[in-house]
Structures are given as structure tokens and as C-alpha cells.
Amino acid sequence: MRRTGGAAAVALLNTALLAAALSACSAGHPATAGAVAKGDGGRADDRPATVTVTPHGTRAEPGEPVTVTARGGTLTSVTVTDARGGHLTGGLSRDGRSWTSDRNAAPGTAYTVTARTRTEEGTTGDAHASFTTEAAGLVNKVDWRPGDATTVGVAQPISLVFDRPVRDKAAVERQLKVTTSNHTEGSWGWMKDWSGKDRVDWRPKEYWRPGTRVSLDARLNGTDSGTDGGWFVRDYHLRFTVGARQIFKVDLDRKRLTVERDGRTARTFLVSGGIPGPETGSWRGTEVVMAKEGTIRMNSETVGLGNAYDQDVDYAMRLTWSGTYVHAAPWNARWFGRANKSHGCINLSDADARWLFEHAGVGDPFEVTGAETKGTVAVNNGLGDWNVGWDDWRARSALH
């Protein structure tokens, strides 16, 4: 039974500690179930089963499953509870002689174990034990996209950026479970984020199907991310829904932006992209709306272009970390539909940029093409996952 409230948790822990002491359970010693014969075929002199619990002690190593083993009998049930009333679930072996938790023991946590046993003669009894894991010296944290309980576009990946290095990527990836309402095929892929931190994204093989419900259960608590990375000390849960299929196709040869909804053309706008060249040209490839930032101050010095510009822009939507936006640029009006004259962004008129800002959403893809572009946007420059072929993307998984 799950106990709630601090007092109940303390009471349970104290009871377990007392029972553990009575049954001689301590570091390096088994816990013995002091069972007494009951009226189910057993005899009063039946020897009780003995139970061993690992980890054990007051400074146990975290990051391993809890294992309970019976000798001289079998286990019929095992309960592992922490001081806050949380449970570690697990399963019995086929022969009933051992039980292993589904989750690792987390750092800095006090656990109590209650194991019910039965001997071949039918004697039943309970064994109690307790242990406490060492606290984490280093803690790793996660920043994630998209936001919880949001509706996103069909190109939105799940993206996790880690605060500290992840050396054991396979151990971390094993704890990440994605569930979809229509069994969407997808894969995790590791990379270095634009910030230089370790990052892992999950993207479908193809754009999401509209209406798909997606959940992520990152059961990371108790997982060691490796040298210099530290422990995860909490789980992360994320739910989101995929909205309408809306794709923005930007042809910088024709200087046109076409809005496609459910495969049909909804609107077409005149645009101007980046001036051809390695510094000012626009990126080509699939760029995903990361954020709708509205009115922002743009300063060319922040993206390495000297003092070329420093001004406010309206209806800005971020496409890359390197500074690519879709935004209003009335000062470039004479070039819309005629020439690429921006410093890399996609420029529109005030009215067109406003319409786009009101109708586009986070996770919508902008598919940019054109001979005057400067190259394909990198996979880590924003949400550039779609610029990697499927086989190459799957090869980025630590489990493939």
C-alpha cells in the first residue's frame, strides 16, 4: 500500500529499520524472515526462508537494480518503498527465488524492503530490510523541446539537451521511451547541440501524421551519465499533439514562399532571401520553427557580420540558432519577388509577415531551396534533423 505524507513515510522507515535489526540485516548480512508456521500445512518447527537484499548498508552504490533473493523457500511478493512513499516496481523470476526491480536505485535515497516468503512446507513470513544510497556528487539536468501539453507542427522533433556531458549514451537512451497513438516509426539521434552540450533528438522517419498524440517518458532517475556527467535524480515526462499538416516552401530562385496545407496551396508570398555569399546567403534545407519571438532587436554583430545592421524587426520567427528568421522587412520592399537582398533571413512585407506569424506554429517546416543559398543547414543548427537521411539518422542512435 502506498503511504502518503511525511509522517507515514517516517513511520514506515522506522518500522523497517526495527524489523531489519531484529532479523540481523546489515551490510554484508542476509535478512532473515522470522516466519512462524501457520495453519496451511506447515509445522511449528519449520525453518523460515532467509532473504538477501542488495544493495545494502547506509552508503550503498546507486545506479543498480534492487535484488531480493530467497534461500530455503520462494518469494511470493516484494515491496520496495522510499522515504517519500514512492515505489520501485519489479518482477519475480520464474522459480520465485529472486526479485529484481525495474528501475535502478536512485542516489541519496532511503529504501525499505518487505519480502513475503513461503517454504516448501508451507511456512510463510515477512522479511524486512533497509538501505540508503549515497548522494550524487554531480547532477545532470535536461532541457527539452517541445513544451509539455502543446500542439506542434508536423516537423517537430523531441529534443533533449543535457546540462553536463553524457558519456554513457546507451545507458541514457535505454531510459527514453516514446509512445505514439499510431505507432509512428522513429529513432533517437545523438549530436552536439549548437551550445556545445550533448543533445539527443527523436524524429519520425517522415513528418508526423496530423492528430498524432505523442508521449515521452524519460525514466532517468538513478541513471549515471558517465565520467564528468553525474547522476540524473529525477524523471521527465512530456506529452504533445501534432496539429495540421502545414508546410512552407521557400524557393529563393523564384523569390516565392508557398503555404501548403494538407497538400494544397493556401497562400503564396513574395520574399527576399540572403544576398548570395558565404556570410550573407540563406541556408537551404528543412528548417523548423523553433519559436515565435514577435518584435525583436537584431544586431549583426551577434552573428559575426560586423555593424551591418542594428534594428527592431516585427513578426519574427526563429528557424536556426545561427540567426535565421522569417520576419517583416519593409525596408527591403523593392526586392520582394525580384532579388535576394537580406543578410540571410527570409524577408516579407509587414502584411504578409503578420499573416504568416498568425498562422504558422512551432514545429512547422520551412523547406528552403535555391541556387543562391550557401549550403545545407547543419543538423544541430536549430532543429535540422530532417537534413539527414533516414539511415544516417538511425546510425546516430547509441543503441543501433
Report what the structure shows.
This protein is mainly beta. It folds into three domains: 6-133, Immunoglobulin-like, CATH 2.60.40; 142-243, Sandwich (Immunoglobulin-like); 246-387, Beta Barrel (L,D-transpeptidase catalytic domain-like), CATH 2.40.440.10. It has four helices and 27 strands. It has helices at 6-22, 169-173, 350-359, 390-394; strands at residues 31-32, 50-54, 57-60, 65-71, 74-82, 87-88, 90-92, 98-104, 110-118, 124-133, 142-145, 150-152, 158-162, 176-180, 186-192, 198-204, 213-218, 236-242, 246-251, 256-261, 264-270, 285-288, 291-299, 310-318, 325-328, 346-348, 365-369. It has a five-stranded antiparallel beta sheet with strand order 1-2-4-8-7, with no helix packed on it. Strands 3-10-9-5-6 form a five-stranded mixed beta sheet, covered by helices on one side. A hairpin with a 5-residue loop joins strand 7 and strand 8. It is elongated. The two termini are 40 Å apart.
